[in-house]
C-alpha cells in the first residue's frame, strides 16, 4: 500500500488508498475510544445517582435551615418580650 507503487499502477487507485488508510486509522482510534466511552457512560450513571442523593441532602439542609431560622426568630421575639 505504498503511495508510489499505487501511483505507478493507476491514478484512480490513489483515492481508494487514501480511503483504506483512513478506515484503518479510524478502526485503530475506535479501539482506544470505545472503552473510554463505556467508562464515561458508567461514570455518568454513577454521577446521576450521587447527584440525586446530593439533591435530597440539600433539600434536607434547606428544611433544617428554615426550621432554625424560625426558632431564631421565635427566640428573638421571646427575648424582646422578656425585656
Topology, element by element:
Blueprint: H1 3-9, H2 14-82
In short:
Helix content is 92%, strand content 0%.
The count of DSSP E runs of length 2 or more, i.e. the number of strands, is 0
Distance between the termini: 97 Å
- Helix % is over 70%
Computed Rg: 33 Å
Oligomer: single chain
Helix/strand order: HH
Mean pLDDT: 93
- Overall outline: rod-shaped
Residue runs with pLDDT of under 50 for 5 or more positions = none
The helix tally amounts to 2
**How large a portion of the residues is in β-strands, by DSSP E?**
under 5%
**Major sheet summary line:** none
| SSE-based structural type | mainly alpha
Explain what this protein looks like in three dimensions:
The chain has helices at residues 3-9, 14-82. With 83 residues, it is an all-alpha fold. It starts with a helix and ends with a helix. The mean pLDDT is 93.
Amino acid at each position: 500500500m505504498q503511495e508510489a507503487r499505487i501511483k505507478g499502477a493507476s491514478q484512480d487507485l490513489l483515492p481508494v488508498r487514501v480511503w483504506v488508510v483512513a478506515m484503518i486509522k479510524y478502526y485503530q482510534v475506535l479501539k482506544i475510544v470505545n472503552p473510554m466511552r463505556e467508562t464515561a457512560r458508567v461514570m455518568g450513571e454513577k454521577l446521576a445517582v450521587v447527584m440525586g442523593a446530593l439533591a435530597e441532602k440539600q433539600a434536607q439542609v434547606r428544611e433544617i435551615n428554615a426550621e432554625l431560622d424560625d426558632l431564631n426568630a421565635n427566640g428573638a421575639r421571646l427575648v424582646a418580650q422578656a425585656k
